[in-house]
Amino acid sequence: MQRKPAGLASTGAAGRAGSISKSARLKWQTLERRIMDIVMQRMTISNVEADMDRLIKVGMALTVLLHNRVEKLLFED
Q1: Using CA atoms, how far apart are residues 36 and 30, in angstroms rounded to an integer?
Q2: For the chain, how are helix, strand and coil distributed in percent, rounded to 5?
Q3: Please, which domain of life does this record's source organism belong to (predicted)?
């Protein structure tokens, strides 16, 4: 029976557990990154929709204002 020097224990299950945890950690980080990308895309879409709604309202208000000014100019003569 051969004796191993101190600190050089078998890397069987312990070595695999370390690599499994590293693999799991990398998969988890990838998953987190993908989730954050999706969240950021949805936030961006939500912000764009809010901006579009605001701009549509501003455009409608400006259209009404322009219409009133045109009518005022037409009926002054």
Answers
A1: 10
A2: 85, 0, 15
A3: Bacteria
What size, in residues, is the chain? 77
CA distance 15 to 23: 12
Per residue in 39-56, pLDDT (tens digit) is: 999 999 999 999 999 999
Question: What residue segments make up the domains of the chain, in order of their start?
Answer: 52-77
pTM beyond 0.90: the answer is no
Residue with tokens 């950690």: 25
Which of 56, 38, 58, 60 has its CA nearest to residue 48?
56
| Alpha carbon distance 47, 20 (integer Å) | 40
Q: At which residue do the structure tokens 């690599």 appear? A: 19
**Calpha distance 12→39 (Å, rounded):** 40
